[in-house]
Write a structure and sequence with these properties.
This protein has helices spanning 17-20, 23-28, 34-41, 49-57, 64-67, 78-83, 150-161, 181-192, 206-209, 216-224, 242-253, 272-284, 308-316; strands at 112-116, 119-122, 168-171, 199-203, 229-232, 257-264, 288-294, 329-334, 339-342, 348-352, 355-359, 366-370. The protein has 376 residues and is of the alpha/beta class. It folds into two domains: 1-345, TIM Barrel, CATH 3.20.20; 347-376, no CATH class.
């Protein structure tokens, strides 16, 4: 069962139960400044000068619902770390850039990114109700938030229609579920009319930060778009609240396949224990842990990055503690748009002739295995 996380600070003051359950109310009442965020949580002070400069470049935005999951008496709270600007965002290491995957160079028409030969992204908006500090598209926040109009969305679909090599489209953003329900329905219908399109995906963090958005009308739109792959983005088991769990169940009950992509974030979930807890929370609901991304080398998020060795160690520790399909694939998205490559832990201890000694993921002991060799 999901673990209930009652807020330590009551953010529902002044809101009726109907308003709290309304995604429009949640969006209108986002906390949008560091000062307001600290005030809502009862945190001392207004932050540092560096944090104020960060806020000017990378705005703040948090739904009351997601903020209610924070435990403000814990300075290392994993949810707070994902939403509260810090001095570290202003301290570049020289390894991070605004657009690490050169998406802007690979955007043939507004709202489309075409990196892989067989798949493309459609980004109908750069808006998210909650602005995650590790976002690899946070460069777009400075442009102001926008939604593509109907004509621009039509041009995006026409681009896909004119590229027969594209078999897979991911509708992402920002968060595409912030489109009006009718607009999203038209977009999905238009994409379904492309004869060579075989796979349709939606990538959204809305089930995590604004589960109220997935109301009956929206779930029905997604159901009619099947076969549809829904990729969500839970980073920590604490995010799998009763509200989030209910939303995930409704998607699954509608016949939609749900998978999760997490990001390995320093100080948030960079331990085997945190990843095991997340996988177990998702598996209980029928959601498959799909990818575990290394934090990308994006400006303003370098402080979240974890070394390759530490990342592999986190993943290695999951083997033997979670079913195989519950261990996500650890991937690095290569800078410059080179694509995703997997990182796998090595359980081979030593070799001697045809004998190979492996480290057991159950007890850490060494187990000999004899390679049968080529028997052709």
């Amino acid at each position: 069962m999901p673990i209930p996380h009652p807020p330590l600070v009551d953010l529902r003051r002044g809101a009726s139960p109907a308003e709290w359950a309304d995604w429009r109310w949640q969006t209108r009442h986002r906390v949008r400044t560091v000062a307001a965020l600290r005030d809502a949580l009862g945190l001392p002070g207004a932050g540092t000068p560096d944090a104020a400069r960060v806020e000017e470049r990378f705005p703040v935005g948090v739904t009351p619902y997601y903020l209610s999951l924070v435990r403000p008496d814990d300075p290392a709270d994993p949810i707070l770390r994902q939403i509260l600007p810090s001095d570290e965002e202003a301290h570049a290491t020289g390894q991070e850039v605004d657009d690490p995957f050169r998406e802007e160079e690979r955007s043939p028409v507004p709202g489309v990114v075409h990196r892989y030969p067989d798949r493309a992204l459609i980004l109908p908006t750069n808006f998210c109700a909650t602005l995650c500090r590790h976002c690899f598209r946070k460069r777009s926040w400075a442009e102001g938030f926008h939604v593509l109009d109907r004509a621009a969305l039509r041009r995006a679909v026409d681009y896909v229609r004119g590229e027969p090599g594209i078999r897979d489209v991911i509708v992402t953003g920002g968060d595409p579920l912030h489109l009006p329900t009718g607009s999203l329905e038209r977009l999905l219908e238009d994409l379904r009319s492309v004869p060579h399109l075989e796979v349709l995906r939606i990538a959204s963090r809305t089930p995590v930060t604004l589960p109220q958005r997935l109301d009956d009308a929206l779930v029905d739109v997604l159901r009619r778009a099947r076969p549809l792959w829904f990729v969500t983005h839970f980073n920590h088991a604490r995010e799998v609240s009763p509200d989030a769990a209910s939303t995930l169940r409704r998607l699954i009950d509608a016949g939609i396949t749900v998978q999760n992509q997490a990001v390995l974030l320093r100080g948030v979930n960079d331990s085997t224990e945190a990843q095991v807890a997340l996988s177990r929370a998702l598996l209980r609901l029928g959601v498959r842990p799909y990818y575990l991304h290394l934090a990308d080398p994006v400006a303003g998020a370098g402080h979240f990055r974890v070394s390759l060795a530490d990342a592999v160690a986190v993943l290695k520790g999951m083997f033997g503690r979670v079913a195989g399909f519950g261990v996500p694939r650890l991937v690095v998205d290569l800078p410059g748009g080179g694509g995703k490559v997997p990182l796998e832990p090595d359980f081979v201890v030593r070799r001697s002739g045809d004998d190979v000694w492996f480290e057991s993921p159950i007890d850490g002991g060494e187990v000999r295995f004899t390679d049968p060799g080529d028997r052709s």
